[in-house]
Write a structure and sequence with these properties.
By secondary structure, this protein is of the alpha+beta class. The protein is 23% helix and 19% strand. It folds into 2 domains: 132 residues, MutM-like, N-terminal (N-terminal domain of MutM-like DNA repair proteins, Alpha-Beta Barrel), CATH 3.20.190.10; 125 residues, Helicase, Ruva Protein, domain 3. The chain has 6 helices and 10 strands; from the N terminus they run H-E-H-E-E-E-E-E-E-E-H-H-H-H-E-E. A hairpin with a 5-residue loop joins strand 3 and strand 4. The termini are far apart.
Length: 295
């Protein structure tokens, strides 16, 4: 699934290519891709036709394009979604789901939503130009200048869940997915099962710093691509997978100590870690119940 760096790469590409363009025609080729829009495919198309794209914004893994009437085109890439800026003359992609013709974009291009697995989707958010109400509950991400480190630390230290679960909690911090959580934890030498309430404030702040570093580095390399499903708006893959230290490296030697990287099941996914650099937490000792003395 595309995570914050990949979504930010797409956002920046949209900002370069479609700002100021007017949507002249909308074609919905598969209604599942607009299932979150209560207007249905026809209403979705009508709400966008004739509107001018004013900006390209992101919160966590969601993208939105503010429109000139105060609404917004809201999108989530899901597992395999792609937003491609393509010349209209190119033939349709195999998994093309929604096509927007644009007037006034750079090079006279159009915007295409391609989604093989169809877990992603588009919708029109009424009045959502500044921040769509549909995603207002999602926390800011660590690369957001307004992200509150102290508030994250305070809330995390009150939780008994493992710290990796906390990193993936979009109500606590957004944008950090499975790949970058494993990479940040490896850099911080923290096991993902360490409970939040058993981590110190400095440890959590260092972990946030490592999350920022790894995602910033990924941004500089165009994101992480393990297959052809993630590409930027020009259809190009990212190269950060060549710089990963933990994720996807089962049985390969740890770059720090040489111990083989381990993989364990985690929330229907996988976690990768070094058992030497990131020792598993000790179990909490159970306190036996107090038995009152007999009279």
């Amino acid at each position: 699934m595309p995570e914050l760096p990949e979504v930010e790469v797409v956002r920046a590409g949209l900002e370069r290519h479609v700002l100021g363009a007017t949507i002249t025609r909308v074609e919905v080729l598969h209604e599942r891709s607009v299932r979150r829009d209560p207007r249905g495919p026809t209403g979705f198309a009508e709400a966008l036709t004739g509107r001018r794209i004013e900006a390209a914004r992101r919160r966590g893994k969601y993208l939105w394009l503010p429109l000139d009437n105060g609404d917004a085109l809201l999108g989530h890439l899901g597992m395999s979604g792609q937003l491609l800026v393509q010349p209209p003359i190119l033939p349709p992609e195999r998994h093309l789901r929604v096509r927007l013709d644009l007037d006034g974009s750079a090079g006279g291009r159009g915007l295409r939503f391609v989604d093989q697995r169809m877990f992603g989707g588009l919708s029109v958010s009424a009045g959502g130009a500044e921040l769509p109400a549909e995603i207002a509950h999602i926390a800011r991400d660590p690369l957001d200048p307004l992200f509150d480190d102290a508030e994250f630390v305070r809330r995390a230290r009150r939780r008994t869940a493992g710290v990796k679960r906390l990193l993936l909690d979009q109500g606590l911090v957004s944008g950090i997915g499975n790949i970058y959580a494993d990479e940040a934890l490896w850099r911080a030498r923290i096991h993902g099962d360490r409970p939040g309430d058993r981590l110190s404030g400095p440890q959590l702040r260092r972990l946030l710093g490592h999350a920022r570093e790894v995602m910033s580095e990924a941004l500089g390399q165009g994101g992480t691509s393990f297959d052809s499903l993630y590409v930027n708006v020009n259809g190009e893959s990212g190269y950060f997978d060549r710089s990963l230290h933990a994720y996807g490296r089962e049985q390969e030697p740890c770059d720090r100590c040489g111990t083989p990287i381990r993989r364990i099941a985690f929330m229907n996914r996988s976690s990768y870690f070094c058992p030497t650099c990131q020792p598993a937490p000790r179990r909490r000792r159970s306190v036996p119940p107090v038995v009152p003395l007999a009279d």
